[in-house]
Backbone:
């Protein structure tokens, strides 16, 4: 049996090696390392895949979130509502721009931001909402968009874990994660469903004026070379990474199918287990399973993790401390007990290996040992 990885990028690379190597070599041969043809080609192909007018490549997903907020001209002290149960980057960019993060709880079934909690958190200082499509499925965007419209709020989608997911509206319309708000963002970190071999990210919008502004912001505020009309940053997707991503974009839907197959295997084994809650699906969203995350009930999670480590099975805890209890955000004055669903998840979730190269032998090994670990770790 091959060594089990949380994400097996080596095996994935071997399957596309010839095409990836050729794409990289072409960039080197042309010496077009920054803003070369491969960036423009990938941008165009991603626009076509997402059915969105504008894709603006950038340096990473965090930059994507930051430049999105910069483009909206928010002012210091303006409130931005987001989830407490996510990676730190979402709140980090809000704080860096001297905006006020308003952290709210999540839905107990989907891990995604609670729509009712968002509505309760809106004040006259609220200017934007950042929903995070966590672990690979969309937030209930139709309901969230109604709140945003009612209160005249911007929605900036954090789709860093959900590229390729489809959201089905009640009227039959289908849109990709990241294309429903005024702006959407994604990350191309290597472990993502569409990942490069370094850092990378992108911003999406259907708004022509915002698209022009975003392109200026990521390029030092320049629209004409050496003329800086606005304050910007230096955040570019380099040509080699774009070339790699263009190869992998052609396979994204197949990668999603493989991840769903692995998730189905896990689900069949763990369904109806008294100590395991399998990932729940939102009825309006497909799931691309960036992570496969379980909730453990009446189990000593530390013992489970230790046992799995002994069996050389990597597992992860996403996320052990919700954002409202992180030291960096003490100034927001949240306390333990304020957002109980997220706090409970932080103490009970566990994520299993999830990637495109998992085979039945590995899946059997993982599931059999997790069941044993749980039987040995019941409280």
Residues:
């Amino acid at each position: 049996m091959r060594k089990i990885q949380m994400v097996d990028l080596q095996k994935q690379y071997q399957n596309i090696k010839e095409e990836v190597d050729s794409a990289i070599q072409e960039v080197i041969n042309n010496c077009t390392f920054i803003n070369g043809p491969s960036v423009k080609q990938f941008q165009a192909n991603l626009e076509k895949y997402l059915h969105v007018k504008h894709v603006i490549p950038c340096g990473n997903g965090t930059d994507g979130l930051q430049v999105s907020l910069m483009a909206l001209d928010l002012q210091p002290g303006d409130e931005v509502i987001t989830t407490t149960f996510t990676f730190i980057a979402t709140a980090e960019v809000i704080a860096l721009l001297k905006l006020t993060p308003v952290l709210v709880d999540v839905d107990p079934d989907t891990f995604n931001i609670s729509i009712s909690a968002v509505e309760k958190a809106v004040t006259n200082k609220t200017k934007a909402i950042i929903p995070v499509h966590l672990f690979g499925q969309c937030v209930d965007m139709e309901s969230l968009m109604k709140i945003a419209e009612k209160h005249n709020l911007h929605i900036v989608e954090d789709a860093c874990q959900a590229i390729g997911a489809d959201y089905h509206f009640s009227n039959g319309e289908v849109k990709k994660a990241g294309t429903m708000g005024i702006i959407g963002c994604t990350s191309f970190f290597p472990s993502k469903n569409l990942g490069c071999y370094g850092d990378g990210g992108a911003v999406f919008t259907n708004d022509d004026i915002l698209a022009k502004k975003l392109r200026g912001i990521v390029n030092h505020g320049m629209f004409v070379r050496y003329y800086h009309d606005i304050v910007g940053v230096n955040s570019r997707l380099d040509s080699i990474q774009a070339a790699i991503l263009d190869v992998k974009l052609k396979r994204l839907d197949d990668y999603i199918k493989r991840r769903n197959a692995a998730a189905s295997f896990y689900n069949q084994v763990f369904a109806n287990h008294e100590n395991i809650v399998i990932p729940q699906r939102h009825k309006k969203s497909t799931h691309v399973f960036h992570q496969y995350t379980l909730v453990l009930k009446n189990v000593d999670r530390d013992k489970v993790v230790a046992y799995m480590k002994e069996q050389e099975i990597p597992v992860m805890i996403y996320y052990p401390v919700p954002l409202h209890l992180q030291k960096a955000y003490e100034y927001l004055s949240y306390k333990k007990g304020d957002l109980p669903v997220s706090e409970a998840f932080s103490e009970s979730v566990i994520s299993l290996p999830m990637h495109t190269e998992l085979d039945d032998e590995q899946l059997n090994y993982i599931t059999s040992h997790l069941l044993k670990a749980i039987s040995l770790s019941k409280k």
